[in-house]
Amino acid sequence: MSRSKSRKATSVLSFRLKPSEHETIRLAASARGVGPTTFARRATFAAAELPAPRTERAANPRAADLAKVLGQLGRIASSANQLARIANSTRSPASAPAVLAIVDELARIRQELVG
Question: What residues make up the domain containing 51?
Fold first, then answer.
């Protein structure tokens, strides 16, 4: 739970669902471009005839793809780092610049993706 001092909505409401109910709600929420919690919150407000909740931040549709790409870049960078360590320990001057160029290129790609 958030420890924000400015957050006004601090009460939590929870309920249990059968797996089939959960899947149905998850699919309905996904069809509307929101998560199941946002979907349930909006439906609850509507059923209780409360004013619609404040609009939540829009989900970034590319966030999952970006996370995958950044994870792959991280793994590649880790491998390049291991190669640099080996090149440094064997005192192989020819391979060190190539490894450093790879690391620099990965950093450039990451900066371009993240901004």
Answer: 16-59
